[in-house]
Amino acid sequence: MQIPGIIDPIPTPREVTPREDGRVDLIGLPKKRITELFEVAGLDAKAAKLRAKQVFHWLYHRGVMEFEAMTDIAKTMRPWLAQRFVIGRPEIVLSQHSSDGTRKWLLKTADGHEFEMVFIPDADRGTLCVSSQVGCTLNCRFCHTGTMRLVRNLTPGEIVGQVMLARDALGEWPRAGQADLSALGDDLVDDEGGYSSDGRLLTNIVMMGMGEPLYNFDNVRDALKLVMDGDGLALSKRRITLSTSGVVPMMARAGEEIGVNLAVSLHAVSKEVRDEIVPINRKYGLEELLQACADYPGLSNARRITFEYVMLKDKNDSDADARELVRLIKQYKLPAKVNLIPFNPWPGAIYECSSPERIRRFSEIVFEAGISAPVRTPRGRDIDAACGQLKTAAQKMSRAELDRLADEKQAALG
Ligand code: SAH
Ligand code: SF4
User: Fold this and answer.
1) Domain 91-405: CATH class, spelled out
2) Which of 151, 180, 183, 185 lies at a 20 to 30 A Cα distance from 340?
3) Strand, coil or helix: what is 224?
4) Are 387 and 341 in contact, with CB atoms under 8 Å apart?
């Protein structure tokens, strides 16, 4: 029997998506790889390096979708590129708008797997919630994505492709004549260059869509490097947050090799409850997890870890739970804030959301101990875009339905 939470990730080494026409999709590839491909295609080393630099800039910084638009590349060179390479984007199957402004896109990979991304606009920022996998191998009991059976890691191109699609949809690629931000370096771009905070809709990225990003570490890292590259999408690492359910052995590497803000889906403060609702806890327990948080590089009061805590009625929402949460954060001396997430229901879910009074009281207890504990307003519930509601149409069978089918099968077998 498979034990939920200790299912190993499915490895899918697919750096270059093979296409029937033999052309290679450049999206998702770093400059070095593009250079190599140009050399293999026949350019000498010097020309390959120069062309790769130009093409990289057009692809990731300017968002062009055709080689013809790369105006500083010789006219004769453009068809040469188009014969050998393509500029891919995930296919948009469906785009939905919530009454609160939240937008959700159902996307499809070239080999037919569906996944979702969500854009959440606020007064002073706009956050894109990006998926890292189709489905999720973990089965947190309150999460709809966790009931999906089909899982494949998304490639770097499919991950960075989500951010590029969002820029396409929001019309937010820098135009010709705008300052070249590559000279500013990635840390300066959004504060000094006014690139992402200057009235733009898309200012922040959270790796909180479908999937467990640390079970697809290499691809998530490679994609985020393109997002953070000053000559790429040029978004500061301070505006990117990666959320993990607690894949302890990968947390230090995430800090060192990616360096973005960390969010941890804590959700419970005792072994008993966390084992039940976040089953990866059976593999990596609370003490190990909190120690890995304490060891996460670069934490300070200005750069805190976020603990996500879903409010489940009579499960993890008592005053004692709130006090224990405070005690743990203090014991491990964590610069932390807590995000309280009202549980978002989905068909077949076995939990209920805590009452507003309960959530308020929980928040107060944590807040009175000097730790910020805002309640996250659910967004996009009407289009199933809120936290934990993502599950593609092809996979809309609920856990209850699946259990019922299994029971029926059992009964039929006698
Ligand atoms: N797999 C990663 C990131 C994706 S989930 C992780 O688990 O951290 C993003 C956040 O939404 C997580 O904190 C997750 O626990 C939470 N979540 C999942 N299902 C939810 C639901 N039904 N209601 C509210 N939050 C939920
Ligand atoms: Fe996977 Fe995160 Fe959902 Fe858990 S909460 S099943 S880790 S997507």
Assistant:
1) alpha beta
2) 151
3) helix
4) yes
Q: Is the dihedral of CA 136, 137, 143, 149 positive or negative?
A: positive
Judged against a pLDDT cut of 90, whether residue 231 lies above it is answered with yes
User: Residue 119 pairs with which residues in a beta bridge?
Assistant: 103, 128
Q: Do the domains at 24-86 and 91-405 have one common CATH topology? A: no
Q: How confident is the model at residue 19 (pLDDT cuts 50, 70, 90)?
A: confident
User: φ, ψ for residue 132 (rounded to 5)?
Assistant: -110, -20
How does residue 390 score in pLDDT terms, banded at 50, 70 and 90? confident
Note whether 225 and 31 are within 8 A (CB): no
What does the alpha-carbon distance between residue 119 and residue 381 come to, in Å, rounded to a whole number? 13
Reference 386, options 148, 104, 165, 147; nearest CA is 104
Among 181-195, 376-390, 393-407, the range with the most confident prediction by mean pLDDT is 376-390
Rounded CA Rg of the chain: 22
pLDDT at residue 401 is higher than 70:
no
For residue 216, report the phi and psi dihedrals to the nearest 5 degrees: -135, 50
Tokens of 15: 């750096």
Sorted by where each begins, the domain ranges of the chain are 24-86, 91-405
The CATH code that applies to domain 24-86 is 1.10.150.530
Ligand 1 neighbour 35 (Cβ under 6 A): no
Q: Sign of the CA dihedral 347, 244, 216, 20?
A: positive
Structure token digits, residue 281? 């806890």
What predicted TM-score, i.e. pTM, was given to this entire model? 0.88
Q: Is 64 exposed, middle or buried (0-12, 13-18, 19+ CB in 10 A)?
A: middle
> Which of the residues 140, 143, 293, 387 is marked catalytic?
387
Which numbered atom of ligand 2 lies nearest the CA of 144?
3
Number of other CB atoms surrounding residue 41 within 10 Å: 15
pLDDT (average), residues 288-306: 96
pLDDT at position 185: 41
The predicted-structure confidence for 103-114, as pLDDT tens digits, reads as follows 999 999 988 899
CA of 245 to the centre of ligand 1 (A): 8
Active-site option among 114, 116, 212, 308: 116
Active site residue 387: yes
